């Protein structure tokens, strides 16, 4: 396996590809030297404020509802440590490793900006944790998506202090102190302002948004592949995807999806077999004919979400923040509303794409609508059930995706004695989107499994170059038509092909011209 190039932190905004490389593929990080100089210069501003007898929030005061409480210099080390220990209050199952690594990376980028007031050693320690493969245990619940992803980020900071639990590079659950000692990393002792700087950020929800966009880019190509297999095997027409028809409604996502469908159905003997005046059907059902409109809407939603993600990746989130001219100012930039809203927006589109996919699957199994295929694509009708219950699985997932599409960002529960009286719930929006994306991959896999069997059952008619190649890929993990057999392993195997991107890749490789 080729070693990934280091991702440079602190020189410019991170790209989505940088986040995926570090979070998912363990790319190392390196710190831009000028960033460390910038961090040291800003720290001197904080040191000056720490010596001021007048209170400054986060430097010489308590936090949140206790912001007016002055803290004497000899208690401030304890103040910072207490902040992290008390805020590391997550509960529930462990969050996935890639989510935690994304959280670590994005907080590191904020620290390296020179606008948060931490010392260079803090930046270097966060980079060392990532490069050592040390992943703090972060738990499912604890963030309201305002004042930053407080609890998740506090779990990261706690590990940097040598406290709490982490997963080492091998995945073993160990005390943070032991993992840091083995990696040669000195635990941090936090000083004024640093506790706040480590926990005020939208890093958790943003990291999950970036990963979701990466996965959805592949899944929407796969959705076009699945739709092409359904149109072809159900003897539908590709005429409705013509470029001039799409130009009458110049929605960008729709145009892209229709272009994919044309390419994926090009040179198909099966499509050609019923073209012309002898085809008595006027038009296909919506789930076939309107696939570009539904898939394209999801693409346009993604484009908007990607714009928000890029802006957030270029942001410095902290409170208080040190401005370029050296002021320390409270602000509300930690509020996750921009990210939360697009996370919810994406969940709606994910549910819609899965819903239309399930409808195409259902048509393929119904002899009243599938144009000559056996009921449920069964081998011996009555004895065999074919793919009947695979459709049930898809329907069950789609039903859950509709529930997951209910926005989290419209909810708000006040906290911190009404100081934090409106919150974004962005973390919750991100968590449910991750589950929704997993469900979409499974629904598309069921449609592809169904489409592959339907294509086989059309013999001697042949599939096109692209859909035939996808059908052949499916056949490497799932047998063709025949008597009923244990179906779940085949469904899981095809799901793995979908979620790994293999289906989308092979479809693109077999496009002619």
Average pLDDT, to the nearest integer?
93
Radius of gyration: 27 Å
Low-confidence stretches: none
How many H/I helices?
Answer: 20
Instruction: Indicate the multimeric state.
Output: single chain
- Per CATH, the class of the largest domain reads Mainly Alpha
- Globally, the shape reads elongated
Fraction of residues in β-strands: under 5%
Structural class: mainly alpha
> Helical percent range?
40-55%
As for the CATH topology of the largest domain, it is Fumarase C, Chain A, domain 2
Number-wise, the strands total 9
Level-2 CATH architecture of the largest domain: Up-down Bundle
For the record, give the distance between the C-alpha atoms at the N and C termini, rounded to a whole number: 32 Å
Encode the helix/strand succession as letters. EHEHHEHHEEHEEHHHHHHHHEEHHHHHH
**Any idea how many domains?**
2
Largest sheet: 3 strands, antiparallel
What's the arrangement of strands in the largest beta sheet? 4-6-7
Superfamily (CATH H level) name of the largest domain: Fumarase/aspartase (Central domain)
Task: Please give a handful of descriptors for the protein shown.
513 residues, elongated, two-stranded parallel sheet, 2 domains, Fumarase C, Chain B, domain 1, 9 strands, mainly alpha, 3-stranded antiparallel beta sheet, Fumarase C, Chain A, domain 2
């Amino acid at each position: 396996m080729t070693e990934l190039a280091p991702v440079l932190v602190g020189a410019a905004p991170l790209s989505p590809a940088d986040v995926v490389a570090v979070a998912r593929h363990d790319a190392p990080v390196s710190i831009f030297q000028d960033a460390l100089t910038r961090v040291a210069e800003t720290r001197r501003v904080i040191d000056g404020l720490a010596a001021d007898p007048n209170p400054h929030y986060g430097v010489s005061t308590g936090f949140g509802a206790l912001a007016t409480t002055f803290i004497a210099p000899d208690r401030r080390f304890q103040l910072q440590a207490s902040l992290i220990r008390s805020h590391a209050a997550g509960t529930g199952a462990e969050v996935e490793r890639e989510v935690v690594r994304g959280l670590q990376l994005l907080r590191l980028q904020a620290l390296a900006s020179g606008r948060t007031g931490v010392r260079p050693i803090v930046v270097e320690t966060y980079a060392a944790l990532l490069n050592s493969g040390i992943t703090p245990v972060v738990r499912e619940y604890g963030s309201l998506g305002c004042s930053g992803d407080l609890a998740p980020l506090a779990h990261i900071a706690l590990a940097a202090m040598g406290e709490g639990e982490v997963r080492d590079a091998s995945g073993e659950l160990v005390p943070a102190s032991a993992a840091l000692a083995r990696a040669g990393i000195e635990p941090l002792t936090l000083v004024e302002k640093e506790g706040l700087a480590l926990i005020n950020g939208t890093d958790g929800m943003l990291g999950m948004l970036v990963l979701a966009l990466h996965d959805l880019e592949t899944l929407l190509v796969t959705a076009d592949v699945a739709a092409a297999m359904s149109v072809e095997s159900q003897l539908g027409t590709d005429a409705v995807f013509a470029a001039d028809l799409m130009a009458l409604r110049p929605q960008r996502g729709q145009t892209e999806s229709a272009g994919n469908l044309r390419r994926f159905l090009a040179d198909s003997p099966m499509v050609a077999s019923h073209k012309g005046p002898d085809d008595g059907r006027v038009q296909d059902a919506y789930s076939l004919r309107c696939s570009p409109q539904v898939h394209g809407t999801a693409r346009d939603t993604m484009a908007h979400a990607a714009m928000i993600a890029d802006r957030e990746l270029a942001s410095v989130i902290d409170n208080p923040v040190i401005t370029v001219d050296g002021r320390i100012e409270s602000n509300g930039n930690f509020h996750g509303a921009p990210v939360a809203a697009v996370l919810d927006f994406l969940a709606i589109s994910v549910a819609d794409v899965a819903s239309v996919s399930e409808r195409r699957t259902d048509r393929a199994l119904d002899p009243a609508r599938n144009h000559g295929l056996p009921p449920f694509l069964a081998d011996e009708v009555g004895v065999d059930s074919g793919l009947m219950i695979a459709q049930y699985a898809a329907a069950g997932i789609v039903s859950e995706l509709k529930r997951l599409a209910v926005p989290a960002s419209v909810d708000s529960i006040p906290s911190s004695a009404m100081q934090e009286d409106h919150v974004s719930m962005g973390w919750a929006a991100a968590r449910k989107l991750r589950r929704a994306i997993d469900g979409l991959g499974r629904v598309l896999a069921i449609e592809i499994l169904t489409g592959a069997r339907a294509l086989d059952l059309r013999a001697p008619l042949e599939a096109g170059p692209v859909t035939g190649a996808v059908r052949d890929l499916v056949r490497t993990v799932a047998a063709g038509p025949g008597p009923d057999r244990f179906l779940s392993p085949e469904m899981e195997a095809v799901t793995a092909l979908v979620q790994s991107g293999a289906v989308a890749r092979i479809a693109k490789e077999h496009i002619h011209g």
